[in-house]
Specification:
Farnesyl Diphosphate Synthase; 13 helices; 0% strand; globular
């Protein structure tokens, strides 16, 4: 999601103007790649090898993620045209035609889901369909009516590792998966809340339900954000304990690093209206998620 710099928070690279760059923006390629990595991590943590089944499942999830993101931009192109940070996306800027984008989105979703059904099995395909329906038919419309849409959308972000876990033959009721899913569930909320606070004027201009711009409400939102970050850190620190193969001294070290992340994040959020603080907090919470997944995979 590339943003211009002032007055909004910058989280990504500048817009590209090439045709290839436009398609990467439409499908939000970095997000599609991250969902594929989360899927592959779930597959590996469930005991699967880095084999053809795991790679096929991850690729299929990436295609479905790209299709869902493209469909999301097609659904919100009128709102994007009114927002400073999104008005130069390919659809509102006219570089890609809406009908073309819709065909591409539905094709990616169909091919991705078919690949998931063939490569990952019925359970993984069912979770993939649930993720697409939840994102495009529940979360996306709900954003226009409730500032708490992120709370409804958060469970969708916990599904990619569950898809990989299921494709590897793991039980969806296994304690390690439940712990990992809870971590991703809580992580999604501050990940999006930071964006919501940073771009609240833009959201309101576009007609999305959002936080009020007053300083008092912004600080109250930051307090809620701190609580969800605390839950994210706690679940992230506790997740290794659910994996019996990870030694105790590694989990203790991980808990200490979670504490350091927390101190840094809370320090940045003391001034929630400051774009630089929000930007640092956004990158830190994303780096923490990457750290948790890497730790689990390396020590499995």
């Amino acid at each position: 999601m590339p943003f211009p710099t002032p007055p909004h928070i910058t989280m990504d690279r500048p817009y590209r103007t090439t045709a290839t760059g436009d398609w990467l923006i439409l499908t939000k390629a970095p997000i599609a790649l991250s969902t594929a990595m989360a899927t592959l991590a779930g597959y590996y943590l469930a005991g699967g090898l880095m084999d053809g089944r795991g790679l096929t499942t991850s690729l299929a999830v990436a295609l479905m993620g790209a299709g869902a993101c493209a469909l999301n931009q097609w659904q919100e192109m009128d709102q994007d045209a009114r927002m400073e940070r999104t008005r130069r996306r390919p659809l509102p800027d006219g570089r890609i035609q809406p009908a073309t984008a819709l065909v591409m989105a539905m094709s990616l979703l169909a091919v991705g889901w078919g690949g998931l059904a063939l490569g990952g099995g019925a359970g993984a395909a069912g979770l993939g369909a649930l993720a697409a329906v939840g994102y495009n038919l529940i979360y996306t419309p709900l954003k226009r009516h409730s500032s708490n849409a992120v709370c409804w959308g958060a469970p969708i972000g916990a599904l990619p590792p569950a898809i990989g876990w299921c494709a590897a033959g793991g039980s969806l009721l296994a304690p390690p998966l439940i712990a990992l899913a809870l971590f991703f569930l809580f992580w999604q909320i501050p990940h999006f809340r930071i964006l919501q606070i940073a771009a609240q004027d833009d959201y309101r201009r576009a007609g999305f339900a959002c936080l009020q711009a007053s300083e008092a409400n912004t600080r109250r939102s930051a307090q809620i954000l701190r609580r969800t970050i605390l839950l994210t850190l706690v679940t992230g620190a506790a997740t290794p304990w659910a994996f019996d193969v990870i030694p105790a001294h590694h989990t203790i070290g991980h808990a200490l690093l979670a504490l350091l992340f927390g101190l840094y994040l809370f320090r940045q959020l003391r001034e929630p209206a400051h774009a630089a603080h929000l930007r640092r907090a956004f990158h830190a919470i994303n780096q923490y998620a990457l750290y948790v997944v890497l730790l689990l995979c390396l020590l499995r």
